[in-house]
Amino acid sequence: MFSWNKINDNVAIHCKTEEEANAFLQGCEKHGIKWCTGEKPTSTTVWTVAGVNTNYYISNKYISAGNLIYSKRHNYTILEWSDLCKPDLPRICYILGGEDNPLKIGEHFQVKGYGVETWVGKSGLLEADLSAGNLILEDMLYTAINSPDSVIRSPQFSDDEKALMRLYVDAGFPIFHRNEDGALQARNRACTNAWMFPPEILPNLTISVGEFDAATYLESEAKDDG
User: Fold this and answer.
1) In sequence order, what are the residues at sequence separation of 6 or more whose Cβ sits closer than 8 angstroms to the Cβ of residue 36?
2) Which one of 13, 21, 106, 208 is most buried, counting C-beta atoms within 10 A?
3) 3-class DSSP state of 114
4) By the 8 A CB rule, do 148 and 98 touch?
């Protein structure tokens, strides 16, 4: 995880998207760092000045902004904000899950064509249902590494999507399901009543996911966060 101790007068933080810039400046605000004008960090990103080349510099608890050309010309050490904020996970989590959405420790997944429950253990090693046999597991891992799109994961949700699910779970509609026509519904366990949503809501809940128990999912997430 990112350590603010890495930032000094010789370091430039490169934010290649405005979302990254916002995240960096929010972090600055939490650590009592202000713009050189005295304003709070989240008052502006100055993104329109340099766009994808935006760099930030911190000196004595104050931020200033520049661009990559300036940073290189003045021999700054350039750190990518996206790299600094990556979770400290085993490399296999990034290989199988992707750089932007790595697998979590203990997150179960399958590989298309194998149907074997697999996960990355706390030791950083892959663990699996050993009843499948070592030869099958070796083949499965080979497929997963060379074809990351073959890795089947549980749906991933944003904080806003989790909040939406929580509202319907609390209202007694914990089961989500997408029909063949693309419509999404949340229903009670007795299948006697349901709420319908526009197709664009919770896009990761595809038809292939089948019935999704939001109550169980949210409970599991709460344990992981705890």
Assistant:
1) 62, 63, 64
2) 13
3) coil
4) yes
Using CA atoms, how far apart are residues 49 and 20, in angstroms rounded to an integer? 15
Whole-number pLDDT of residue 207? 82
Q: Tell whether the torsion through CA atoms of 9, 32, 66 and 18 is positive or negative.
A: positive
The helix, strand and coil proportions of the chain, stated in percent and rounded to the nearest 5, come to 40, 20, 40
Three-class secondary structure of residue 11 per DSSP? strand
Neighbour-count burial for 114-130, b at 16+ CB within 10 Å, e otherwise: bebebebeeeeebebee
Contact 12, 76 (CB under 8 A): yes
Q: CA nearest 78: which of 14, 3, 24, 1?
A: 14
Query: pTM higher than 0.70, yes or no?
Result: no
| Lowest model confidence (mean pLDDT) among 52-66, 81-95, 192-206 | 81-95
Place of tokens 């509609």: 173
Position 149 scores a pLDDT of: 82
pLDDT of amino acid 167: 95
C-alpha span between 93 and 125 (Å, rounded): 10
Under a CB-based contact definition with an 8 Å cutoff, are residues 84 and 57 in contact? Answer: no
Residue 135: predicted pLDDT: 59
pLDDT of residue 3: 63
